[in-house]
Amino acid sequence: MREMGRSGAAAAVLALCAMPAESAATQKSIIPTRLVRPPAAGPAAIAASSGDACTVQVSVCSHQLPSAFALIDKSSVAKIVIDQEADSAVQAAAQGFADDVTRVAGVTTAAKVATRPTGERIVLIGVAGHSALIDQLAAKGLVAIDDLRGKWETYRQVVVSRPFPGVKSAIVIVGSDRRGAVFGAYDLSEKIGVSPWAWWADVPVVRRPHLYITAGVHNDAPKVRYRGLFINDEEPAFGTWARAKFGGINSKLYAHVFDLILRLKGNYLWPAMWGKAIGADDPATMPLADARGVVLGTSHHEPMTRAQEEWHRDQDRGVTGGKWDYVSNAANLRAFWRGGIERMMSKGDGHGYEQLVTVGMRGDGDEPMGEGTATALLEHVVHDQRAIISEVTRRSASQTPQVWALYKEVQDYYDHGMRVPDDVTLLFSDDNWGQIRRLPNHDIGRTGGYGIYYHFDYVGGPRSYKWLNTNQIAKTWQQMDLAYHSGDRALWIVNVGDIKPMEYPIDFFMKMAWDPEALTPEKLAAFPREWAARNFGADHAKAIAQMVTDYSRLAAQRKPELVDADSYALGGVTPKTLDGGEFGAIVDRWRALAEQAAFTRERLSPVYRDAYYQLVEHPILALGNLYELYYAVAWNRRLSMAGDPRANVFADRAAAAFARDRKLQAAYHSLNGGKWDGMMLQSHFGYTSWAEPKVDVMPAVKRIAAAKPEQTVRFAAASAALRSAYAIVDADAFTARHSKSRFEWKFVSGIGPNAGAVGTFPQSTASTTLSDAVRIDYTMMVSGAGEGNVRLHMVPTIDTRGTGGLRLGVSVDDGPMKTVTMNLKVDEPSWSKAVLDNDHVIDVDVGRLASGKHKVTLWRLDGNVFLQRLALLTQ
Predict the structure, then answer these.
(1) What tens digit of pLDDT does each residue of 521-560 get?
(2) How would residue 109 be classed by pLDDT, with cut points 50, 70 and 90?
(3) pLDDT tens digit sequence for 286-299
(4) 306, 298 Cβ separation under 8 angstroms
């Protein structure tokens, strides 16, 4: 069980008759009202959200301004123009943008994509140096393009008056390359109100019959080179859904995946891999990715563009033989890998499909290599892989982008000295639970750079988590901000499981990957409301932002796959009342959140309710219901052991919650005519080990036929041994901060299950000393004298330098500083407990303390150290 401060709700005595089997809010929220879809065209208008940035250059405004470009004027739309020989990715984005404008305008005549600049108003989309039309404007001095040449995915949006004969005005979107042009177009799509999640989460498009683009120039470019998603652990949910809706995980499905990635300003994909092979399952998929401008890769354990599934299929057909073992079967493995590079080059243009080639090797099926594997052997593997790349591409291997994923035990090989050529990107990883394990040494530069492989979903120990989004964007921000400032800027990729229901953290991760420097702590705090406004309009953005934030805090208590009847303490029992204790306090918070979700849903326009159920309401109801089930099971077991017939009431409630879970799932599957049927099939009840159960299993309950009267009342309240004094504060309750260096303590809301956490900024792995005086003070009161103990509740983080742990100084009343160390190591018991609890407790003995007020001071010694709660005890 976890230690937790008792809230007022926990102390309240709950009368049995006042504990409803199913709250009214929960009952009303199970099946959403039938939805009316927003019209793709037609006269019915939906009120647009407020907050147009009419004073910013090249921003969207709902009223006309001098020199502004009329994208939509009285529902008349501008013509979309591209060059006749435009790249296929530019063509697809231009058509996508035209479709978006059509939906926003609500007109019956779609926005046209043309190759000639005719008409009063045009949107011109192209690539610098590859667009005759844009080159003409550059020659006239109307659009600058020289500074774009050779840059990566950069775009410029410019409002131009009288660009061509007969054309009154234009907005020109010019990319430094094809993806730059694509991102420039889709950036404008999002600004006019088309969410990247319009298809993937049914976010409605609000009609705006008057839409103007303010005059000026807007430039943008990514700060991280490759930014992408990894579809993984995709059975049973994603796979079942895809087979039912698309006939498989094929090019028809991937067209939607590619569109999502590009609209999120991403460029990279590790495709689904459980029994799947993107290059073999549908021959149209790889060419489609290249045509759309998406860079394909393969996961951390699938080298040379070959899916692991292909190896097994080839074995089944007798094409290859032997084990996945380079010592005994090198020739077969080289032939298999060569086939992957040959397929990459099969485009026939001498350049091949744009791919980022994974090199290196793990064991078969994403398992560790054989025990005692030598780093020299793995270096030999990479050497031979690069030789294949060079032979097949007929150019130096250094000209083909490559990545080596330092995942799990592969990092150990790196730590023990294994090295690969300088042009290969080194991809560090987190611990699968959101804590980055290693960061680059600034003294070692690489032309290939460094990256991070991060997880929102995981199958493995100490327990798999796949069902719902339980990721806190603030924790993701803290870790990725540290990574960026440590030099990880070549590749960010995140394991997103089934894509749904990870929409919220995916949206955040991709926006941060585009420009980590723009996401300051202040912008982080504003993100939930901005996200809510983009997807649900401004009117309810504040309420929805608070709900997703509260949900994240509650989900951070521990992931649902880890919750059971023993997770939290119950209170005391009398013949008439039951004290909910710690468990009851958490359930109360879930009930209050469900009430708020129902209250807001009833006030939303019906067109938002599909998206609202997917992105906000379902996770609240489903996870809250899981807590209700285990809370009922906990009471049933406790009361049945005493022969108390009230156990039967809780047995009924547990069964009702299990049935309610099925209803919530069915409601999700019925959305938008069954569009997402299958997406919520992931099991989440009945875990007995790290591996997911094949089906959900109702926890066992007992029913009491009769009870002895004396057995119904003999219970003692569950409580820890009392201390003479105990004071506890959240991290934001500091009284003073000091520093003689560039570092300072700041509070970050949204990290951990409490108010948030304090850490030092700017983020760095550099150490400081006592003389730097980077300290933060807390004033705490204890009511009794005794031996003092400071208890630190830390956010779990890992020493990314591998130097023996993360240090923090502690002193009381300006006394001598004591140094404490957090040295969590993956798979060790202390790490397992920390990730299960989302909390790491450090106790510091501080000597005898008098009764009364004390100053507790924390001193920065290392970075990546965050405190979420602080206690002072005497006994």
Answers:
(1) 999 999 999 999 999 999 999 999 999 999 999 999 999 9
(2) low
(3) 999 999 999 999 99
(4) yes
Residue 45 pLDDT greater than 90, yes or no: no
Task: Give the model's pLDDT for residue 821.
Answer: 98
What's the burial of 486, exposed, middle or buried (CB within 10 Å: 0-12/13-18/19+)?
buried
Contact (Cβ atoms closer than 8 angstroms) between residue 333 and residue 303: no
CB 378 within 8 A of CB 384: no
Q: What is the pTM of this model?
A: 0.93
Q: Where in the chain is the domain with CATH 3.30.379.10?
A: 60-220
Nearest to 157 by CA among 214, 106, 206, 116: 214
Distances (CA, A) of 592 to 383, 547, 551: 59, 10, 11
Reading the block at residue 366, the tokens are: 């994403």
CA–CA dist 536, 548 (Å, integer): 13
Superfamily of domain 60-220: Chitobiase/beta-hexosaminidase domain 2-like (3.30.379.10)
pLDDT digits (tens, 9 = 90+) for 726-758: 899 999 999 999 999 999 999 999 999 999 999
What residues does CATH 1.20.58.2150 cover in the chain? 541-712
C-alpha distances in Å from residue 796, one per residue of 454, 524, 808: 15, 20, 14
Neighbours of 314 (CB within 10 A): 18
pLDDT computed for residue 372 by the predictor: 58
**Region 226-238+259-279+291-307+321-519: CATH code:** 3.20.20.520
List residues bridging with 841 in a β-sheet: 793
pLDDT of 19 over the 60 cut? no
| CATH 3.20.20.520 intervals, the chain | 226-238+259-279+291-307+321-519
Cα 664 → chain centroid: 23
Closest to 618 measured CA to CA, from 581, 670, 559: 670
Can you tell me the mean pLDDT for 429-449?
A: 90
Answer for the pair 25, 174: CB distance below 8 angstroms, yes or no.
Answer: no
What pLDDT, on a 0 to 100 scale, did the predictor assign at position 363? Answer: 81
Q: Give the pairing of strands 268-270 and 295-296.
A: parallel
CATH 2.60.120.1620 intervals, the chain: 725-874
Does 35 score more than 80 pLDDT? no
Task: Indicate the burial class of 478 (C-beta count within 10 angstroms; 0-12, 13-18, 19 or more).
Answer: buried
Terminal CA-to-CA distance of the chain, rounded, Å? 23
The total number of residues written for the chain in this structure: 875
Mean pLDDT of the chain: 90
pLDDT at 2: 35
Could you give the CA distance from residue 401 to residue 225 in angstroms, rounded to a whole number? 12
CATH code of 541-712, in short, is 1.20.58.2150
Q: How far apart are CA 351 and CA 290, in angstroms?
A: 12
Average pLDDT score over residue span 683-710: 86
| Mean pLDDT, rounded, for 105-113 | 80
Question: Which H, E and C letters describe 247-299, residue by residue?
Answer: CCCCHHHHHHHHHHHHHCCCCEEECCCCCCCHHHHCCCHHHHHHHHCCEECCC
> Which CATH topology does 725-874 take?
Jelly Rolls (2.60.120)
Within 10 angstroms of residue 572's Cβ, the number of other Cβ atoms is 15
**Higher local confidence (pLDDT), 203 or 375:** 203
